[in-house]
Design a protein that fits this description.
- The protein is mostly beta strands.
- The chain has a single domain, classed as 3-Layer(bba) Sandwich (Glucose Oxidase, domain 1), CATH 3.50.30.50.
- Helices cover about 10% and strands about 25% of the residues.
- The strands form three sheets. It has a nine-stranded mixed sheet with strand order 1-13-11-5-7-9-10-4-12, with no helix packed on it. The chain has a two-stranded antiparallel sheet with strand order 2-3.
- Helix 1 runs parallel beside helix 2.
- The chain is globular, with a radius of gyration of 17 Å.
Length: about 210
Amino acid sequence: MKIIDISPLIDEDLAVWPGDVPFSREVSCDINADDNIGLSSIRATTHLGAHTDAPNHYSAAGSGIDEVDLNKYYGACQVVSVAVKPGARIEVADVQCEINQPRVLFRTSSNNERTVFNTSFNSLSVELVEFLQQRQVLLVGIDTPSVDPFDCKQLLAHQQIAHSQMAILEGIDLRAATDGEYTLCALPLKIAHSDSSPVRAVLLESKV
């Protein structure tokens, strides 16, 4: 089994949504400075790097990340590349393959610079979310900070995903994965009432 890491590196240089809390790490004990152990603490947004949105991020009646169905974040998936204009939503017509797995990860290549926040990233159209729902997709992922455009306050794709009861995986890095079928593992942390959780998202590829 080959493991493909689709999580960006988390450090102080990793860009976060403008106005959100960037990552920082404070060292309390340093084993290389004569302490008997290494010990540190971190501070950051929960929407950090590869992360899963909880329903209460976009719905007042939604549950926290500690209550989500973990089955949605592990299992068969497919990586799908699309080519759309900067800032555009992905439409159904942009998907040039059959959707035949219950988890779909979109590679847009519109957000490959990890240290600079690019506001013209691609996102999902409401029609595409409906299309995925019709194919019984459980989780949709994307290699951008959000399934909605940067300036969309109505969160139209998020709201349609809530209606469809699908899970969301954002901020993944799909550059090391080719299009095709894999097993996804992107389990969120069990953070009480949290609106999101960072994850170590990986794809498992069976060796022939």
